[in-house]
Amino acid sequence: MRLVALVESESHVCCRYRLTAFRRALADAGHSLEFRELPQSLAGRLALGRDLTSYDAAVLQRKLLPRWAVTLLRHRVRRLLFDFDDAVYLRDSYSAKGFDDPKRATRFRATVEACDLVIAGNRFLAEEAQKYVPADRVTVIPTCVDLDRYPVAEHSATGAIKLVWVGSSSTLKGLERFAPTLSAIGRAVPGVRLKLICDRFTEFPPLPVERCVWSEPREAEEIAAADIGIGWVPDDPWSRGKCALKVLQYQAAGLPVVANPVGVQGDFVRDNETGFCASTTDEWIGAVRALAGAATLRKRLGETARREVRARYSVAAGVWLWIEALERLGSARKAG
Where is the Spore protein YkvP/CgeB glycosyl transferase-like domain (predicted)? Predict the structure, then answer.
């Protein structure tokens, strides 16, 4: 099948992890994937899809277009897919206006109803799409990581213990809300420090912070040079739609993870198997203390986590979900 993806940017993290990552494996299975950046101008939106008639399917990623634009696109392409990995029908956790946004919700419904297939990053998002279309028009394909990019953490029994958090300026807002607990960890667990891999930095005294400027070529190596991954998100509707990429990255590097059990973080992090779930400050301190004091425990949990990523959340595993979805899409269209 010849596919074209309509994306905000090829460098956008969602495009890189949810589409570009599968390009080579899809080609090996006989499917080509090309990219086009979504036009921003009215003239560009009016022409959207006119030059896509030769493709078997167009994949609209994340962007909620006005109903008229989605309608035009639907009429001009052979098949239309929508791929999303966030609760795009809501405002985010940091909006002063609250979560509900009638315009986003209306656009989301129009987009879902126009598509032959909706690809959601997790069950929570899939269930929202299934409010508007039959369940057989919605499938879940999780965000996946390329294990070959990640060296495996060494888990030395000596030296300072490094917690690691990776993210961007926008998601750092969430970690800043978590500052009291991070400061408490710094007071309660001597010798622990926090490695921030980001494009903006902050402090959580007395917890020492190691600043590491994010870069794509070095990201995986920097994660693997730490000891424990941490994942904290607000417990709210926006966060329950997140796909927990950072948790998968930590696990791909063989790190145990401590995270609050919000959304899929509660699926990825299982107590004493791949890490520890923690909600209260005392639970966070206890989990970090247990892992900091036992290199063998960190290694065991990290190895289990990496095996699970390989089996369920690696590019090699995820591409088969894409292939099955495309085969089903092709068969359904032929039958119709």
Answer: 182-316
